[in-house]
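re: the backbone from monday

yeah here it is again, tokenized this time
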């Protein structure tokens, strides 16, 4: 069913409903209206990097890892696999009468916010800090998830609109102060691309306010920009319980009825939360019109008609069977994605490891045999977990002894409340001393970087250590209140473990499993190699091991800047882009945006330009076949240009050892534009293009 046909069908159905019945359909947990053929439906579902929170599903690498992949085609293929699994789950859930939460086809993904500050706990849900990269991968994800036919395979949702990237602890009352230049240059381009290029079906409003108006109740964002300027024709959903923030936290309304009316009148159609329970009362008070209610209802029901799940038409996707969920084909794709999204930050030549020469390997660290850092957040349950330890055991040569030691707790001083701090350190030292080298697996997981709320991480802290440095806001009792970091350092127990192991004198290869930039200055000095594995997916430990032992070449690049510390970054609450991200940062960094090593040696031989087409000759002068990311940057000579060159195109060729290959890269429309202080995009004819691997 085309959009036009779906809209006509929805409009005809809405004309038969009472105003009260329309209000039933504007909540995420929409009621059934049997006499009009409307079954109950729950709009809340998640698919950030796999179908989430509904049991077994293929868990692909976390979004930040996909950002590191610099591969739109791969992201699209992954999203297509996700929607296939979503349909399989939907079909068997429906067959068994389960219409509950996380069982629908309206997926609230992708998260295309800009990872502007390394302290933000949810940054690993994004594709990184660059608007262009975010747009390209976001468009690919939406197209893969929704499909190309008239019937939507699944409905994607661009979130969180707009100007949203922490702090988590105050997100419900925070007003993100932003200039028009930063708004249109940094915070909106990805959303615009998903609306105009990908036809994203839904947009989710953010918790925070922008220009003093809560994002879910902002006519400027939802009506003037999204619908009038960009031509968005889908539905808008609030972030969960964000509309209640209007009266509870933002204090721009006095009652739930006023909040419901403000959201609907601004252009928010669907409420994740319960404030739209008061929508009928708002109508009775004259705060919202019947026309506005029916318009919103038409929008949300249009989506269900487009999915083929309302009305009698059905769709070709109804036949997708149970077996398509977590299938061998999708596990293979997840394995491939994990191999192509780990970033080799440092290598003094120790990698790849030579399995036949190693008699013993120590695998040490709190993330070495943990499942949590495999899956990130917003995840399903993998049908199979392979930790880094398990992966190394599978890949290492027969006869190689693998000595495992946890070494320390992820963030507590001790691994149990009854034992002393550093209770596992001696075992780790013994393992390292009795091995040829150490693979040290450190980092974070979703329990200490993530969304507001979190867990109770009390107890076991070293005396004098601020628990907030472990990643999160804490109250005076040590209860974690939010998922942001206040420090880029690893938790103190991990820092002590690293320092102790360096004194052993054996080579150390560090595997970092985290979703954000970490202060690795000590590791950069003392470790022979550093591989950033992010959160690589359910079987991601196997990919890590294959990369370490050279069964594949690392080929990803950093989608974020690794700063040395936060000392010279602006305040976290400052949304101005000055001195933020690779485009504006003025200091010296540890690892720059776009950095990543391979086992090959790809270089640009020559390139020429014809219009917007670049013809590029590249060569791999190394001895290992590899993929690598060719990055194209533009530096405009304009007072409105960022101080540093900006990514404007990329490609990811596979180049065999010794091979020379010709590539063609198309520069996007507007690659040589800048945004002035009023937010207008203008052409700059004076610019320079550079290419780099």
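seq for it, each position gets an aa:
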């Amino acid at each position: 069913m085309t959009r036009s046909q779906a809209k006509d069908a929805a409009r005809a159905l809405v004309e038969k409903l009472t105003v009260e019945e329309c209000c039933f359909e504007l909540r995420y947990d929409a009621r059934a209206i049997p006499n009009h053929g409307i079954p109950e439906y729950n709009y809340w579902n998640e698919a950030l990097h796999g179908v989430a929170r509904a049991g077994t599903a293929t868990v692909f690498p976390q979004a930040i890892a996909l950002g590191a992949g610099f591969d739109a085609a791969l992201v699209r293929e992954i999203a297509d696999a996700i929607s296939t699994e979503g349909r399989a789950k939907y079909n068997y859930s429906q067959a068994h009468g389960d219409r509950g939460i996380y069982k629908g086809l309206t997926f609230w993904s992708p998260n295309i916010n800009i990872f502007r500050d390394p302290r933000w706990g949810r940054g690993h849900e994004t594709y990184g800090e660059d608007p262009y990269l975010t747009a390209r991968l976001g468009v690919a994800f939406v197209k893969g998830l929704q499909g190309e036919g008239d019937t939507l395979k699944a409905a994607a949702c661009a979130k969180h609109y707009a100007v949203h990237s922490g702090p988590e602890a105050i997100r419900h009352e925070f007003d993100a102060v932003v200039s028009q230049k930063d708004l249109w240059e940094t915070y909106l381009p990805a959303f615009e691309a998903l609306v105009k290029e990908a036809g994203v079906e839904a947009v989710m409003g953010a918790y925070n306010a922008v220009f003093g108006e809560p994002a879910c109740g902002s006519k400027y964002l939802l009506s003037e920009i999204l619908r009038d300027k960009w031509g968005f024709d889908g539905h808008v959903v609030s972030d969960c319980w964000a509309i209640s923030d209007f009266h509870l936290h933002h204090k721009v309304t006095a009652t739930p009825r006023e909040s419901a009316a403000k959201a609907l009148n601004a252009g928010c159609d669907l409420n994740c939360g319960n404030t739209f329970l008061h929508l009928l009362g708002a109508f009775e008070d004259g705060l919202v019109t019947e026309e506005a209610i029916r318009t919103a209802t038409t929008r949300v029901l249009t989506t269900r008609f487009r999915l083929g799940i309302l009305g009698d038409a059905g769709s070709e996707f109804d036949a997708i069977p149970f077996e398509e969920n977590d299938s061998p084909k999708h596990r293979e794709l997840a394995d491939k994605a994990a191999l192509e999204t780990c970033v080799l930050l440092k290598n003094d030549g120790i990698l790849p490891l030579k399995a036949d020469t190693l008699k013993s390997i120590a695998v040490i660290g709190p993330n070495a045999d943990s499942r949590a850092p495999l899956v990130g957040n917003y995840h399903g349950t993998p049908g199979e977990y392979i930790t880094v330890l398990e992966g190394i055991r599978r890949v290492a040569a027969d006869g190689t002894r693998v000595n495992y030691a946890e070494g320390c707790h992820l963030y507590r001083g001790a691994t149990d409340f009854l034992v002393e701090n550093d209770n596992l350190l001696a075992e780790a030292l013994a393992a390292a001393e009795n091995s040829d080298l150490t693979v040290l697996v450190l980092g974070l997981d979703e329990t200490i970087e993530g969304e507001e709320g979190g867990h109770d991480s009390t107890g076991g802290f070293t005396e004098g250590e601020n628990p907030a440095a472990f990643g999160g806001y804490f109250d005076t009792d040590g209860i974690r209140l939010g998922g942001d970091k206040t420090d880029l350092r690893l938790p103190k127990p991990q820092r002590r473990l690293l320092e102790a192991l360096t004194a052993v004198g054996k080579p150390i290869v560090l595997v970092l499993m985290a979703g954000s930039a970490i202060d690795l200055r000590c590791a950069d000095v003392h470790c022979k190699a550093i591989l950033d594995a992010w959160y690589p997916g359910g079987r991601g430990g196997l990919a890590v091991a294959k990369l370490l032992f050279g069964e594949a070449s690392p080929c990803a690049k950093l989608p974020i800047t690794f700063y040395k510390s936060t000392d010279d970054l602006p305040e976290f609450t400052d949304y101005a882009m000055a001195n933020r991200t690779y485009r504006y940062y003025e200091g010296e960094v540890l690892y720059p945006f776009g950095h990543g090593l391979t086992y090959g040696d790809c270089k640009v031989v020559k390139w020429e330009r014809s219009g917007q087409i670049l013809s590029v000759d590249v060569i791999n002068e190394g001895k290992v076949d590899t993929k690598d990311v060719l990055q194209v940057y533009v530096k405009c000579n304009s007072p409105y240009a960022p101080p540093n060159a900006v990514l404007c195109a990329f490609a990811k060729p596979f180049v065999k050892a010794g091979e020379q290959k010709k590539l063609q890269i198309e520069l996007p429309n507007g690659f040589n534009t800048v945004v002035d202080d009023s937010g207008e995009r203008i052409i700059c004819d004076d610019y320079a293009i550079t290419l780099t691997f």
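The two ends are 44 Å apart (CA to CA). The CA atoms of residues 384 and 538 lie 6 Å apart.
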